[in-house]
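Render this sequence as a predicted structure.
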Amino acid sequence: MKITEGITLKKTLIILMSLFVVASCAKTPKQYNFGQLGEYYWNNTSLSNLSSSHFETEFAKNKGSCQVEENKLAIPEPDCYLPAKNECSGLTGARLGMCYSSPALKCDYTAVSLAKKARETIFSTCMQKSGWQMEWKPGTGEDITGGVFEYVAADNVNEYFIKQHSSSHIGSKYKAVVRIQSIEKNQKSHQGVYVFDVSNNTLKIDNTEPVLVNKGSAADTLLTIIKQLI
């Protein structure tokens, strides 16, 4: 049981139909390899009879106790050292000045990484002892598959990605798989199949009813980008 509010289809349509400026991507878009849309979360089936509020209270209590346990393992400082000074004989001008400058500090973070992984193991073991298990919850949408996505646009709240090779054009319809992610990571991502019909200027996401695309809206910008990708 977990209560979180994500970017629902209704919210998505409101966002896409709003008249705000969307900064489209550069000529060479960045590419990201995303996994299947969804999330891992802690669940405790022995507490399934509790109300949502009591369930969250128990989770917070156990989480807090386990964080105390993991914090008992100290994170060491990285092993840092200054390299030997450069040999500068025979150099002149700017090269001589750069040579005499202090060498950059070099650090080995191996011990730090190992300690952090050990903390994660301590926390996980502690939670499991209290009856909690990590479970996978798939995201919502007609197409939640992972793959290579291109970053195509952003506004003040969200970033927009189009799945590579998902864009197509048949007749008056333009289709693509679009993933929307909250910039602040405070809401769940949403991914779906977007079908634009330029014959009646509408957008249909998954199984929702088609809605009119406003000129200058985020949806209008996405349509322009999808056309460019085909």
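Summary. Residues 42-80+94-137 form one domain. The radius of gyration is 25 Å.
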